[in-house]
Write a structure and sequence with these properties.
about 900 residues, mainly beta, lipopolysaccharide transport protein A fold, 16-stranded antiparallel β-sheet, 9 helices, about 5% helix, LptD, LptD_2, LPS-assembly protein LptD central domain-containing protein
């Protein structure tokens, strides 16, 4: 001990030396004792493998400033400065301290000042390597130098890059406080993930509250290192946690159309909570019009999701002239001033066993609203809009289920406007109909034997009998009230009212209800089993019964004074009908063995089927559904008598039916040797005809034209890529023309074997469809999730998404239709369509769609879309050169949803023809 003391010089050196000797074995053994803290690294080629095992130390927390164990490791070496109480880590240094971790080429731990310092190192080529990365509480920072006090939890970071939500912050100096907030000097905020971003928002000072918001002082937008004058006095950028929504302003777009200069989609989004949010937005036009739109999206996990939207539109057009009333062909012409509303509601439940299912799909509003405020060609061209609300439930442990429905439909074509009380004009009432309510109770088909007996089945023939039941009650109301009429009756008392279309309002509820139709339908089906006959045939008899209760029943009588028919109406009527039938079918297989070089065999599958149905003549007087009525006196003083239905609707047919139907289905397949099989032992199945069906019927009880039209349909696939569909109909009866040139069917068969005539073609349709790109045929057409910018624009001129994975696609469609009238007038229509995409480069994508009409020799519809991937930006160009949707749209916008309002849009779109 004396020699060691003389060598060290004083007692203080001796104390430090003894501490070092005590720590040395602990440092050597720690990598073996602390499991999971030694981080291995694969040595590079030519590298000394003796350095592959890093130094690693884990110190237990002493009583003092260190709150928990500090675990650290390094690939090259770990040095201890005992006198200064500093640890040096070289080469892939790593530190873990509680929730904090740090990685860098060089890390220094100062226990006296509680500081962690990390920097880069310079390799043999002079390049800086090992950029420090600091992580704490889910936040990550990358910088050239990091100084962090693990006691006060404050730090200073130089030349830092950190990610906050979808954005990245580059700062010259960052200071971090104990509240996990940090402040940046000379900062840049961007959503571009490159080291040198394409664009950024620059500001002298930034403050960041992690998982909450980023705030800045005065800022301006810099694109391509070129400062722009775009900016503001302060900036606020929300950075919520993943899938957490936040409220905020929606920046509008501007432009010009026939309604003047406009600001569109100016709004605010209210994020009430994680399950419901509301977007309120408005459009303002310089000519005085405006549009207000509110849409609420809601979701309850594992239960339902939906959205509810309400639009109010005021169209101001004081310059509407006579040309509009005359339905001018000017497509830019707008209707007179009007107000309109529109409701969109969609509610979709998650199906759960034993629970009811409530669903809604509502699209309703003022007639013509979608013609003026269209956002897609489908909305503009739709003949009508349908809405429905329903609740369905199956009663557990029973065959019963019930449904409650409410439905509404309205025409899309607006009516002529009428004057309003304030001097403006409002649209006339459009055609609307309501079915409210529509109730049904159903019993699934069950075995009659099991329904009435608990005894086990014995296999008797009567145990195959089944029964099913359904009852449905509905009330239908329409504002389109036709003049009172009775088929076949032209002279009756009270025939004064004309067709009327009533506005939908509370003042007209009573009249609408009185003119509505109410009925209840009962249907009972009885199955008599399925039996094998003659070994190869399936025989299935059946019986059905139906009954309808109606709210009106008529009794006719002739009034000799007025020489008209008087009609007495009661509030209840009952009609019923019943029928019986049977079907017989089988399957026939036939195989022809070819034994050729490639073709092994051809198989023909035939499925013939015959059915018979009988229904009595419910026009017979004993049923009371029809009445023979005297309607007047002829010129020869004889009474004119007609048979009239005593019900407004629902009466069964007034003639007996004894009809037989037949059909033959064919399937032809070929067995061929595989091209890749050299041993000729593997075979493939090739479909020549997928389904060829011939069907018709014969009514034995009909007075004339007993044979029904003959129908021939076929579908198959040629060369594994061309889908072929054929549908045709043939009239078996001859056509005759009288002296006046009027053509009519004659009860004589067209068949003439000497002239090789079988039947007269009335309609024929051929459709050929193919996709020439094999990769596109194999790829599921699901919308990718990495392009939100395109989905946000919602412009009809732009595609829903762009798929860069497929370099090109090309789909072709050809349709040929043939129609022949009674007067032998032939109408032939041919259309050819093509659509696809072309990836010019990895960043450029072009999609196209066009249809050509050969009859009119014009392009019926065409559009071209160009998309450019600008890394952190998207550029989309949409062009429709023809039709009501013609126009173009050019949009350049930031891809990130966080900066979705950072965009430039130029749009030119023709207005819909309001007719």
């Amino acid at each position: 001990m004396y020699k060691i003391s003389k060598l060290l010089g004083n007692s203080e050196d001796l104390r430090h030396f003894l501490i070092f000797l005590l720590l040395l074995p602990f440092a050597l053994l720690t990598p073996l004792l602390v499991e999971g803290q030694v981080l291995q690294q694969t040595p590079a080629a030519g590298q000394d493998t003796t350095l592959a095992a890093p130094d690693s130390v884990a110190l237990s927390a002493p009583s003092g400033d260190i709150a928990t164990t500090i675990k650290y490791a390094a690939r090259d070496s770990i040095l201890f400065d005992v006198e200064r109480e500093v640890v040096y880590l070289y080469g892939d240094a790593k530190i873990n301290y509680g929730t904090m971790s740090m990685e860098a080429a060089y890390i220094e731990i100062d226990y006296e000042t509680n500081m962690l310092t990390a920097t880069t190192l310079t390799d043999s080529t002079g390049k800086e390597v090992g950029v420090p990365v600091f992580t704490d509480g889910g936040e990550t920072y990358a910088a050239k130098r990091i100084a962090y006090n693990y006691k006060s939890r404050r730090g200073r970071i130089s030349e830092v890059v950190t990610q906050q939500g979808e954005g990245y912050i580059h700062a010259e100096v960052v200071k971090r406080n104990e509240n996990n907030e940090f402040f940046g000097l000379h900062s840049r905020y961007t959503t571009c993930n490159l080291e040198h971003p394409h664009f950024y928002i620059g500001s002298q000072k930034f403050k960041v509250i992690p998982n909450d918001k980023v705030m800045s002082g005065p800022f301006n937008l810099v694109i391509g290192d070129i400062p722009t004058p775009l900016g503001f006095l302060f900036g606020l950028f929300p950075t919520p946690k993943a899938q957490k929504r936040s409220s905020g302003i929606q920046v509008p777009s501007f432009g010009e159309n026939t309604r003047g200069f406009y600001l569109q989609d100016l709004g605010y989004y209210f994020a009430w909570n994680d399950y419901i949010g509301t977007l309120v937005q408005a459009d303002i036009y310089s000519l005085g019009g405006y549009n207000i739109d509110a849409k609420t999206d809601y979701v309850k996990r594992y239960s339902y999701r939906g959205s509810f939207g309400l639009q109010y539109n005021f169209l101001k057009n004081d310059e509407a002239d006579i040309a509009y009333s005359a339905r001018s062909t000017n497509e830019n012409l707008l209707p007179p001033t009007q107000r309109s509303i529109w409701i969109d509601w969609s509610h979709t439940p998650v199906q759960k066993p034993g629970r009811g299912r409530f669903s809604a799909n509502v699209r309703a509003g003022t007639p013509g609203h979608q013609r003026v405020n269209y956002n897609s060609a489908s909305n503009y061209l739709a003949a009508q809009f349908n809405s429905s609300i329903s609740y369905q439930k199956t009663i557990p442990n029973s065959p019963f289920s019930y449904t409650i429905n409410a439905r509404q439909s309205q025409s899309n074509s607006p009516q002529r406007s009428r004057a309003a009380g304030d001097g403006s004009t409002v649209p006339g009432a459009g055609n609307m109909s309501f079915v409210l309510p529509d109730l049904s109770l159903s019993m699934t088909t069950v075995s009659i034997y099991e329904l009435f007996s608990d005894a086990p089945s014995t296999g008797a023939w009567y145990e195959n009998f089944t029964i099913g039941y359904n009852v449905r009650a509905r009330n239908e109301v329409s504002n389109n009230i036709p003049a009172r009429s009775f088929p076949g009756l032209t002279n009756f008392i009270g025939q004064t009212r004309a067709d009327t279309t009533l506005p939908i309002s509370f003042n007209n509820i009573q009249e609408l209800w009185e003119n509505g139709k109410r009925e209840a339908n009962h249907n009972l089906s009885i199955g008599l089993g399925n039996y094998k006959v003659f070994r190869f045939f399936n025989f299935s008899p059946s019986v059905s019964y139906g009954e309808t209760w109606l709210d009106e029943k008529y009794t006719f009588s002739f009034d000799p004074d007025s020489q008209k028919v008087d009609i007495d109406t009661t509030n209840f009527g009952r009609v019923y009908q019943y029928a019986a039938g049977a079907s017989l079918n089988t399957t026939i297989y036939g195989t022809a063995y070819i034994k050729g070089k490639r073709v092994e065999a051809i198989r023909h599958l035939i499925r013939p089927s015959i059915s018979y149905n009988y229904r009595p003549d419910f026009g017979d007087e004993r049923f009371g559904f029809y009445q023979e009525v005297m309607t007047g006196i002829a010129s020869d003083n004889t009474a004119r008598v007609q048979t009239l239905s005593r019900f407004r609707s629902g009466a069964p047919g007034s003639s007996m039916s004894s009809a037989m139907g037949f059909s033959i289905d064919n399937n032809i397949e070929m067995k061929v040797r595989s091209k890749t099989d050299t041993a000729a032992t593997k075979f493939e199945k090739v479909t020549l005809i997928n389904n060829l069906r011939l069907s018709s019927g014969y009514d034995f009880a009909a007075d004339s034209f007993k044979l029904a039209p003959i129908r021939l349909t076929m579908n198959t696939r040629l060369f594994k890529m061309v889908d072929v569909t054929l549908a045709s109909a043939f009239d078996p009866y001859r056509i005759s023309t009288n002296d006046a040139g009027v053509a009519r069917r004659v009860d004589e068969y067209y068949l003439d074997l000497r002239r090789l005539r079988l039947a007269r073609v009335t309609t024929a349709n051929l459709n050929l469809r193919t996709n020439l790109n094999p990769a596109a045929r194999k790829t599921e057409t699901t919308s990718p999730t990495n392009l939100p910018a395109l989905q946000q624009d919602m412009d009809p001129l732009l595609p829903d998404y762009i798929d860069f994975k497929i370099p090109w696609t090309l789909a072709l469609d050809y349709t040929l239709s043939y129609n022949r009238s009674l007067s032998n007038v032939v109408d032939i229509r041919q259309t050819f369509g093509m659509n696809g995409t072309l990836g010019i480069t990895e960043m450029w994508q072009v999609s196209y769609n066009a249809n050509y009409d050969f009859v009119n020799n014009n392009i019926a519809h065409a559009n071209v879309n160009i998309h450019r991937d600008l890394h952190c930006w998207d550029m989309s160009i949409g062009w429709v050169p023809f039709g009501i949707m013609r126009g173009y749209n050019i949009t350049i916008n930031a891809r990130s949803a966080l900066l979705r309002d950072l965009k430039l849009t130029k749009r030119s779109r023709g207005n819909a023809l309001y007719q």
